[in-house]
Amino acid sequence: MTEDTTAADSASTDEQPVVLVVEDEPDLADLYAAWLGADYDVRTAYGGHEALDELDGAVDVILLDRRMPGLSGDEVLDEVRERGVDARVAMVTAVEPDFDIVAMGFDDYLVKPVTRESLLETVEGLYDRSKYDTRMQEFFAVSSKMGVLESEKGRAALEDSDEYRELEQRAAKLREELDESVAGFGDEDFEGAFRDLDGDDDEDLFDDADFDDL
Known about the structure:
five-stranded parallel beta sheet, DNA-binding, transcription regulation, transcription
C-alpha cells in the first residue's frame, strides 16, 4: 500500500459529519459553531442567501433560524427540500411554534434560548437518524412536531386542530407500518423505544440504540 493510499484512507476514517449553522446573529452563530467544533465540521452562514451558497450534498445536519431578513428560514428550508439535499434540519428559533409547522419539512424544532447540552444532543440525534430508512425518519419528524405542539398548546387547542389530528393519524399509520416491519422485535422493547404519543410522558421520544439493527 502506498503512502498516498494510506493517507487517503486515514482522512476518510477521520472525516467528521458536516453541520451547517444558519443564524443571522453572528455572535450566536459563532457560539453554536464553537460548541460543535470539537466533533463536527461546522459551516457558518449569517443569512439565508449565504446558507444556500454553503449548501451541498456533504451537509449532514442543518441548524436553521426561522426569522432572518432577506431570505427567511422557512424559505431556506423549502429550497433545501427542493434541491433534494439529504440533510436533517432542526429549526433553532425564537418563533413560538404554531400549527403551521405541520406542513414544514424540518426534522426537529428548538425554541431559543437553547443550552449547549440540548444543541449537542439534537445534532447527535439528527445525525444518527440518517442511519434509518425514509419511513423511520418521517416517524421521528412527525412525532417531534407532535411533541413540540403538545408542549406549547393546551389540550383544547390540540383537540380543535385539524392539523394536529392529521399528525396523529400519520403517526399511527407509520407506527403500524414500522411495527409490521420489525417482526421479532419485542413489544415491550418497541413500546419502550418511543414515548407515549398522547403527550403525557415527558421521556425522550426514542432511544436510537434500540434501532441500530433496523
